[in-house]
Amino acid sequence: MTNQRSPLSFREKSAWISLISLVVIFGAYFSYIGMVLAGLARNRFALFLVMVAVFIIAEVALHLVIATQSPRDARTPKDEREQLIELKATRTAFYVLLVSAFGSIGTVHLRLSDPDDHLWLMMQAILFSIVFAEAVKFARQIVLSRRDA
Amino acid sequence: VDTAIRNTIRRLRFDHGEMTQQELADKIGVTRQTVNAIELGKYSPSLEVAFRIATVFRVPLDRVFQYDGVRTASEKKKV
Question: Alpha-carbon distance A114 to A122, whole Å?
Answer without folding.
Answer: 13
